[in-house]
Specification:
Layout (H helix, E strand, L loop, with lengths): L3 H14 L12 H8 L3 H13 L3 E4 L3 E4 L6 E4 L2 H8 L4 H4 L4 H6 L6 E11 L2 H7 L6 E11 L8 E7 H4 L16 H7 L5 E11 L3 H7 L7 E10 L4 E10 L3 E4 L8
Parallel strand pairs: 3-10
Antiparallel strand pairs: 1-2, 4-5, 5-6, 6-9, 7-8, 8-9
Helix pairs in contact: 1-3
C-alpha cells in the first residue's frame, strides 16, 4: 500500500505530466498543500523531496517550489572529433559560424554565454603520467564554462591541459582573451603544426560533490558523468588532456564504431 507522502507525490506528478502545472509554474505554498491533502507538513515535505529527487520540481530559496523546466539536452558523440578536425583548417569566417557546443545542442552561437580562464600549474603525478613528462612540468590549465543564455547553469565543467613549452611558440595560445577560439583546440594546435591522430575517451560516473551539484544545478540523486579525453598527435605524443564533468540529467553519449567488412 502506498504511503501518504507517495500518494501526494503521485497526485502532483500526474498534474505536472498532464500540464496542469507547467514548467516554470510555482506550486501552491506548503500551507495550502497541507490543507489540500489533509496531511502533516513533514509528510508533505517528504512528497516534495521525492519529486525534487526525480527532477520534476526544484526548490528556490525564499520563493517556493517550482515545476522544473526541461533543460537543453546535449547529444555528445565520438563523431564530433572528426567533425572538429575537418574544420580545423577552414577559413576563420567559416570556423566562427559554429562550435562544438552548438554542434552538440543544436543552438546557435548567439544563444550561448561562454567563459574561459587560463592559468599556469605544475603537473602532479596524474598529469605527469598522462603526458609522460616529469612531475612539476609547467602546464597551461584552461577552464571552460558554456551555458545557454536562457538557462542558469553550464552544459559541463571542462578543465583542459597543455604543456606550456609545446604551445608557447604561439603566444596567442597562452591568452584567454582569444577565446572562444574559432575551431576549438584542434584549430589551436594546427597553428603550431600539430595534427591529431586519435582521441581516447574514458568514461565513468560518480555522485557529484556539493560544489559540482551547485555549479551544474543538479537535482538530488543525479549522477555526474566524468569524461577523461586524451588527444594524441601523429607521432603518438599526448598534446592535450581534458577532464570533462557532464550532468547526468541532460547528457546523452553515443559511440559509433565503424566495423571492417569480412
Amino acid at each position: 500500500m502506498a504511503k501518504s507522502y507517495e500518494r501526494i507525490a503521485d497526485d502532483l506528478r500526474d498534474r505536472i505530466r498532464a500540464g496542469e502545472l507547467a514548467p516554470g509554474d510555482r506550486l501552491p505554498t506548503e500551507t495550502v498543500l497541507v490543507e489540500r491533502y489533509g496531511k502533516s507538513l513533514p509528510t508533505l515535505r517528504q512528497a516534495l523531496g521525492l519529486l525534487q529527487a526525480e527532477g520534476l520540481i526544484e526548490k528556490q530559496h525564499g520563493r517556493g517550489n517550482f515545476v522544473r523546466r526541461p533543460r537543453t539536452p546535449v547529444q555528445r558523440t565520438n563523431v564530433r572529433h572528426q567533425w572538429e578536425k575537418d574544420r580545423a583548417r577552414e577559413p576563420e569566417p567559416q570556423r566562427k559560424k559554429t562550435g562544438a557546443t552548438e554542434h552538440d545542442t543544436g543552438l546557435e552561437v548567439d544563444d550561448l554565454v561562454f567563459q574561459a580562464s587560463y592559468g599556469l600549474v605544475e603537473a602532479g603525478e596524474e598529469l605527469a603520467q598522462i603526458f609522460d613528462v616529469p612531475v612539476g612540468t609547467v602546464m597551461v590549465e584552461r577552464t571552460y564554462r558554456t551555458r545557454y543564455d536562457a538557462e542558469d547553469y553550464p552544459f559541463s565543467l571542462v578543465d583542459s591541459y597543455l604543456v606550456r613549452d609545446v604551445v608557447a611558440t604561439n603566444p596567442d595560445l597562452l591568452d584567454a582573451s582569444n577565446e572562444p577560439w574559432p575551431g576549438g583546440t584542434q584549430s589551436q594546435l594546427h597553428t603550431i603544426g600539430i595534427e591529431l591522430d586519435r582521441i581516447e575517451e574514458r568514461v565513468l560516473a560518480r555522485p557529484p560533490s556539493v560544489e559540482e551539484a551547485e555549479e551544474l544545478g543538479l537535482p538530488p540523486g543525479t549522477s555526474l558523468i566524468i569524461l577523461g579525453k586524451t588527444s594524441y598527435d601523429t607521432t603518438g605524443r599526448v598534446v592535450e588532456h581534458s577532464f570533462v564533468r557532464l550532468p547526468g540529467d541532460r547528457t546523452v553519449m553515443t559511440f559509433v564504431t565503424p566495423l571492417e567488412r569480412w
